[in-house]
Amino acid sequence: MQVLKPIIYAIKLSNSIKNHTRHTGSREAQTFKNHGGSKKEMQFPPYGNYSVDISGNVLEVFALGAWNLKTTQLFVEEMHSLIKRFDGEPWAALMDGRRWVLATPDCQAYLSEAIKTNIAMGLCRSAYVLDSGMVKKAHLERTHPSKQRDLEFPHYERQYFKKYFEALNWLNQEGFSPILTKP
Q1: Per-domain residue ranges of the chain
Q2: Does domain 10-173 fall into CATH 3.90.76.10?
Q3: pLDDT, tens digit, for every residue of 115-145?
Q4: Are the CB atoms for 164 and 58 separated by under 8 Å?
């Protein structure tokens, strides 16, 4: 039965993604001047999608598509609302970015501040599941506290994985699990 738990969990998670992926219709306004000098407002919709939820002591994130700043802002707002449930207790994040296409440069600074806030709110481990290319990893590295400054966050560690179950296994070894069992 112990072997089936991760498989059953993965099936439930897959169904959850289908039902909870964000498709927002809000728009981001930007004002610009046209050639005639008059101001016009242009609306930019959020691009990309995400699913974010808490299971056990793990924040689970599934990122899809290419993100712009509006998507990132919506994601961070929802994520910070959810992590309040941890009430300062240690927690981990599991991010599946295999279907993520990257984000605009302005998103990196925004995510960087959000990650620092998460660490201050109890984030201890981050497990990133990415495909084999190095571009996404390099992109994500720019959003994290630098290795030289890791002394500021001695209880925080991140790892990158190619397989979802490898990430789950590492988090479990570190004391974090989406399936918490009562002692």
Answers
A1: 10-173
A2: no
A3: 889 999 999 999 999 887 655 555 565 555 5
A4: no
